[in-house]
Design a protein that fits this description.
62% of the residues lie in helices and 11% in strands. Helix 5 packs antiparallel against helix 6, helix 6 runs antiparallel to helix 7 and helix 6 packs across helix 9. It catalyses: ATP + protein L-histidine = ADP + protein N-phospho-L-histidine.
Amino acid sequence: MSWARFGQPARADLALATLLAVAAAVGSGVAARLGHAAVPLDRTGYTLVIVAALALAVRRRWPLVTLAVTGLCAAGYLAVGYAYGPILLLVMFAVYSAVRHAPTRAALWCAGAVLSLLLIHLFTSDGRPGWPGVVPVVAWVVVPASVGYGLRLRQAAAQQARVETIRQRVDDERLRIAQEVHDIVGHGLAAIKMQADIALHVLDRNPGHARPALEAISRSSRQALDELRSTLAATRRVDGDEHNPPTGLGGLDQLLRRMADAGVRVDLRTHGEPGTLLPAAVDLAAYRVAQESLTNVLRHGGGGQADLTIRYEPDGIAITVSNPLTGTPAAGTGSGIAGMRARVEALGGQVTAGPRDERFEVHVRLPLGDPA
């Protein structure tokens, strides 16, 4: 057998078993000299002790075999009449290993069989304690079995926790992708719908005026598809796509052009300068906030005008989007505000949205650092 191919744990168990064999042989000799055994320790006794110890070399790979060999060696050792000694500690170690590494039911059956052999010896051998010795004999098996089972449960719980963590990360990533697709597709479709309505309105009376709206539809759809392609490529870790549109606030110019094509004039005001390069997550979130808010203006604002204010602060960035209130449903009555809030709060930011001074205003603040 090549122990190297079984890995570090197998080599460690082999070294441990060899060390235990030497220690158990020496300890058994000392116990024989100090005790009052019916039979003095001889070559057979030493052989049983050494075999019981060496069986622990495969305690992880074949734990039930280890327990069977160690248990039978201990039973034979005691049946001959040798003095109690380290071989009982080897039995405890074998019981622990079986319950820790083998199928639970099989391990408990084997541990019960070993306990039965020890109890039979307790009541059938000459000069043995009988009933007063039941508790310590049972403890030799029950205590290591309990320790092994407890560690097994803890390992299973830790593994389950890791699985749940991975599952949660997958769910979070799916939600993030869904939010990205919602923002991209929702904005693109809203712009296309507005432009299509304009084209239909002028098509019969003045067909020539429909062409700019159709060209705007073409641009909006192409830009939305490029942005969607970029987002999906990022989830596959694809780099170097020359068609990737700007992400983050660097894409504001294209966003404002699309809004203008759809008939919404956006007045952009910027206060301050970013002291450092914005973290990628904050930069993208700020862009998505502006995109979703302006999309809501396009859907519900009805006034054809919006204000976008970006304020750079020492420890964060604030984005405010407002538009005149109209008789149409207020901006954000759908899932847009909820998705925006989830995105922002995940980064430790705050969102407020609602009427203010005859305008509907969305105000978002994003911190530059990680949320505490």
